[in-house]
Each structure stands twice: as C-alpha cells, then as structure tokens.
Amino acid sequence: MWLVLGVVALTIGAEWLVRGASKVAVGIGISPLVVGLTVVAFGTSAPELVVSIGAVLKGQGDVAVGNVVGSNICNLLLILGLTAVVAALPVSKQLLRFDLPLLIFVSGLVWVFCLDQNLSRRDGALLFAGVLAYTAWSVIASRWKTKRDAKEAAAAAVAKGEDPNEGLPKPLTLTALVLNVLLLAIGLALLTSGANWFIDSAIIIARTLGVSELVIGLTLVAVGTSLPEIATSVVAAFRGERDIAVGNVIGSNLFNLLSVLGLTAAVSTGGLNISADVLGRDLPVMFFVTLLCVPVFWSGRTVSRLEGGLFLLGYMTYLLYLAYQSYQLV
Predict the structure, then answer these.
(1) Could you tell me the CA-to-CA distances from 210 to 107, 205, 206 in Å, in that order?
(2) What is the distance between the alpha carbons of residues 84 and 307, in angstroms, rounded to a whole number?
(3) pLDDT band, residue 78 (cuts 50/70/90)
(4) What is the per-residue pLDDT across 269-311, written as a single tens digit (0 to 9) for each?
(5) Torsion angle of C-alpha atoms 104, 107, 112, 113, degrees rounded to 10
(6) Which whole number is the average pLDDT over 104-125?
(7) Bridge-partner residues for 118, per DSSP?
(8) How far apart are CA 132 and CA 120, in angstroms?
(9) Distance (Å, whole) CA 257 – CA 102
(10) What is the domain partition of the chain in residue ranges?
(11) Cβ distance 238 to 86 under 8 Å?
(12) Considering only the top CATH level, what class is 32-170+221-329?
C-alpha cells in the first residue's frame, strides 16, 4: 500500500512542482531553465542533503560522500538518459556556455580537494560559498536577460507597426503568484514524502522476497534519493518543459557538490574522510561522465533518444561493475 502511495505522491508532486515552477518563472521574470537549475534542482536534492547531514552526525562521513557522488552519477546516466528516451531534450546555449562548464570545473575541484583523502571544513565552506554566488548570479542574470529580450521584442514590434504588448506573457497577479508558489512547495513536499514511502516499503518487500542486501543497496537505495529528480524530469519532459528537465539534472549535480557536500564538510568535526574506493573509482567516474556531456550536448544541441539509451546502458554497466567488485571482496 505504501509503495503504491509513494508512486502516486511522486507523480502528483512532480506534476505540481513543474506546473508551479513554470508559472513562477513567468511571474518573477526569469526563465524556466533558471527555475530548473535553482528552485527545482535544490528542492529535489533535499533527500541527499538530509541523508548526508544525518550520516555526518552519526559519524558516517563515507556514507555522506558516497551518497553525493553516487547521486551525481545516477543523475547524469540514469535520469538524463531516461528523460531523453521519453523525449529528445534540447540543450540551451546558457547550459553549454556556463552551467555545464561550471559543473565540470566544480567536479574537478572536488576531486582535487579529495586527493589527500579528506574534504576539510575549509574546503566545504568554499564550496558552500560557491552555491550562494551561483544562485544569486543565475537569478540576476536571468531577470536582466528577460527584460532585455522584452525590450528588443517591443522595439521590433513598433518598427513593424504592431502592438508591442502583443504576444508577451502576461505577468501573474499577486494572488496567482502566491498560489503557484504554494503549488510548488506542496509538490516538493509530496516528492520528498513519496520518495521515502517508496524506498522504505520497497526495501521491506525486497527483503521479504529474499533479495540480497547487496542488490537492495545497489538498486533501491542508490536510486531512492534520486526519485524526486527522476519523477520531476520525466514529468517535465512529458509536459514539454524540457528546459526544466535538463536544468533539474545539471542544477541538482551542482547543488549536491556545492551545497550538500560543502555544507556537510563544513559542519563536520574534522572534515570528511574519503575512502580509497571513492577516490580511485567513483570520483573519476563522476568527473568523466560529466565531461562526456560536452560532446553529447554539443551534437546538435540535443540529447537524442539514442544518446539517452547509451547513458542508461552506461549506468547499468556501472552498477554491474560495483556488483562485481563487491562479489570479489566477499
């Protein structure tokens, strides 16, 4: 019953989140892409933040690091791949010119910070300062671009003797804006609750059916904290809000590294210890998968269904490799 309720909550939550986010974007004069990169991405990454902070407070720093790195790999290979299979995803110029290069830089920076097998509190504070600067810049730059585009469109309409206000999106009333912000917030709450209900009940069912702890860890737990991103991106693709779908994935990865990992390291006592497995296997995989997005995104500025299928295949290969390594250790 809880498994079914989790799926229903995820579906409704994603629908309301995407609908509210797209309306709020128009209401405050920023693009849906920026809403996907910030509000939606940060909201759907809430489970990673909760899990990582909780792990550090329990003295399980390796769980916190593994959660963030594993989620980023899952976001790019599984979520972006699955969403592209649903509908080919166009990639905006802003993502190509700024957000993707920034994600590559931050991924490499985290890898460098971890080379001494410790992510210090100072490193964490620097990363967290980065997310504050990134969010502020994204909102300010988007509002400026929206106003500039509106002025250019109005000038072109006047030159043609047309009404400059025709075709422009009508700003939301204060009541409509508040209602859509409320819709967005309820959507986020349903996403988080639905993910928890789904993962908890799925684990109980799997154990009852005799599925091994290894398989549960590599599948249900690994994907569990990424369920909000999966639901949001797939629903956004179905609704035609594909900027939100792509922005959600890239923004979630930036948020995971800068905010989740940064804040977790900053509040820890002696920083986060980085295991040899994460340093030698998972961090390089995360970095090179992020780097792989460059040729994929630039090829026609679209993530095609074929490329999405290859991303999914890559994620399955990664899981099989993890399973093989775990079997060797046993």
Answers:
(1) 38, 9, 6
(2) 8
(3) very high
(4) 888 888 888 888 889 999 999 999 999 998 888 899 999 999 9
(5) 140
(6) 94
(7) 273
(8) 19
(9) 11
(10) 32-170+221-329
(11) yes
(12) mainly alpha
